[in-house]
Amino acid sequence: MTLSRDTRLNFRLTHLGLGAVLLAAAAYGQTASDPAPSSVVSNSNESLEPAVKPNRSAISESTSGIAVDPASLLPDLPPIPSAKATMMGGTIHRLDRVRDQITLNVFGGGHTTVLFDPRTKVFRGTKEVSIADLREGERAYLDTILDGSTVFARAIRLSAAKASGESQGVVLKYRPDRGELTIRDGISPTPIHVHVNGTTKFINNGSSLQANNLQEGSLVTVTFSPEGSGHDVASQVSVLAAPGSQFTFSGQVVHLDLRSGLMVLKSSVDQKTYEIYLEPSTTPDDNLHAGADVTVVANYQNSRYVARNISFNSASK
Questions:
Q1: Which of 16, 33, 125, 192 is the most exposed place for a label (fewest CB within 10 A)?
Q2: If we measure between CA atoms, which residue out of 154, 151, 152, 158 comes closest to residue 135?
Q3: Cα 214–Cα 274–Cα 176 angle in degrees, nearest 5
Q4: Residues 82-123: tens digit of each pLDDT
């Protein structure tokens, strides 16, 4: 097919119009999507430096300033209130370092809770130590004040040497399998609990005694010392009287109560006093009175001495 001259001209004009449209669209796309000349990557091997560089010295100085002493961020504690101090002594039963409080088993019975903080001074003997030196089971004397409704320890005093003690009483319970010994001491309102172990010595009348042969109801003297777990550990248990044993006492009557049948005698041998009970059926001699010098034969039964025979020494007649 042969196109006329006019037809070919119109066809060319149409193509030219389409080309113009396409060129215009390409130019618009270049303007909208192509990056700005300043951000075009160079063909050279040199890397472009960022417009803003971080101040490394400023960052280092700022970072080093973060490592501060936490204690410096806390406010200073107020001075200890000026109040009348009270001294109390006992055994540290529980030490709570989170709540900053001590539960103290007070000498003579009972327990109390006492607060402490960095203002509390701790002494071992005459040397000042830290609160970290406190141990459960250790005997301590606290210089306390009343701060509002709470008791606060202004000072805590520990013995310079490892504390030890001695108690005399009747064996209420003995569990050799558990190493537990419970005695009733005449000066303590509550029973005393001590632990025994392989190093504890048992003595009866100056001779060694097998630990398993210690009888409940025996009158004993216990020497003990505290350990870190909060328990008293017996270093020696001395049997003074076992149930059914017989004793002879000689000395002066220092007290006599016929109503209760109690006689207190001071021994001329060891200068100790002994409580000796009279049998209810016994009719006391008229010469038996305070100041009399007597010799008493007694049995140890039911946790006490019971007189079987009383004779008067010649000096008392």
A1: 33
A2: 158
A3: 15
A4: 666 788 888 888 889 888 999 998 876 778 999 999 889 999
Residue 197 CB coordination number (10 Å): 11
Tokens 């000072």: give the residue: 155
Matching residue, tokens 């071992």 = 124
Residue 71 in domain: no
Q: At 277, which CATH number?
A: 2.40.50.320
Nearest alpha-carbon partner for 80 in 146, 124, 158: 146
State the Cα–Cα distance between residues 187 and 58, nearest whole angstrom. 73
Q: What 3-state class would DSSP assign to 235? A: strand
Structure tokens at 289: 């009175």
Beta bridge partners of 138: none
Q: Is residue 57 part of a domain?
A: no
Does some domain include residue 69? Answer: no
Among 220, 241, 262, the domain boundary falls at 241
**Contact present, 223 and 235 (Cβ < 8 Å):** yes
d(CA 238, CA 12): 133
Rounded Cα gap, residues 54 and 57, in angstroms: 9
Segment (H or E) for 304:
strand 304-312
Are 147 and 170 within one domain?
no
pTM: 0.45
Give the tens place of pLDDT for each residue, 115-172: 999 889 999 888 899 888 888 878 888 989 887 788 999 999 987 655 567 888 899 9
